[in-house]
């Protein structure tokens, strides 16, 4: 039986590696972060890693339709790739995307097409994304938010969105780290 990750990695690579090599490195790094928190995911570890490696496919030139990568990526996964519904929903809502959808006037579309997964899984994917640099190396969410703001500009739509999302991104990270710490304290 093949796993979601065995399906997800080649798909993400086919969409990102050549046209967007830096974005591909980022997705690989986000998937690596997912493996580091597998102990809190139980049977969802494969699901989260698959969503992690696919989370930014909406940036691929052939997929970018609305310019809002979570929606574009999720639609492709649902309509073309026939992906697992939980993977699709995680990609659609990754890293507080509903706040960016608000700013773009796409919140109703996002919410009507893609239900949000459990807080546990959404937190985990946000943690993985916001603790990974654009080049795929580990970072922390404060530096990542500052990097995003600097790259897009503080007055840009993305700059304003990421600052608005900052409290929730930091809260996601705290919740994940609390779960990891609790899992490490559990006797084997």
From TrEMBL:
InterPro entries: HD/PDEase_dom, HD_domain, HDIG_dom. It holds the Pfam family HD. It comes from the Bacteria. Residues 19-180 form the HD/PDEase domain. This is HDIG domain-containing protein.
């Amino acid at each position: 039986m093949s796993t979601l990750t065995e399906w997800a990695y080649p798909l993400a690579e086919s969409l990102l590696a050549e046209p967007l090599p830096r974005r591909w490195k980022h997705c690989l790094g986000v998937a690596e972060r997912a493996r580091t928190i597998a102990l809190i995911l139980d049977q969802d570890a494969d699901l989260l890693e698959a969503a992690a490696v696919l989370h930014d496919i909406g940036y691929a030139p052939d997929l970018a339709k609305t310019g809002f990568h979570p929606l574009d990526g999720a639609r492709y996964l649902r309509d073309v790739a026939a992906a697992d519904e939980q993977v699709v929903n995680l990609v659609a809502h990754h890293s507080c995307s509903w706040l960016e959808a608000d700013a773009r006037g796409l919140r109703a579309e996002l919410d009507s097409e893609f239900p949000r997964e459990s807080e546990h899984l959404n937190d985990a994917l946000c943690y993985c994304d916001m603790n990974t640099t654009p080049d795929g190396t580990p970072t922390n969410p404060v530096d990542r938010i500052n990097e995003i703001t600097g790259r897009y500009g503080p007055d840009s739509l993305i700059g304003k969105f990421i600052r608005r999302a900052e409290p929730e991104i930091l809260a996601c990270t705290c919740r994940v780290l609390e779960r990891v710490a609790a899992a490490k304290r559990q006797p084997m």
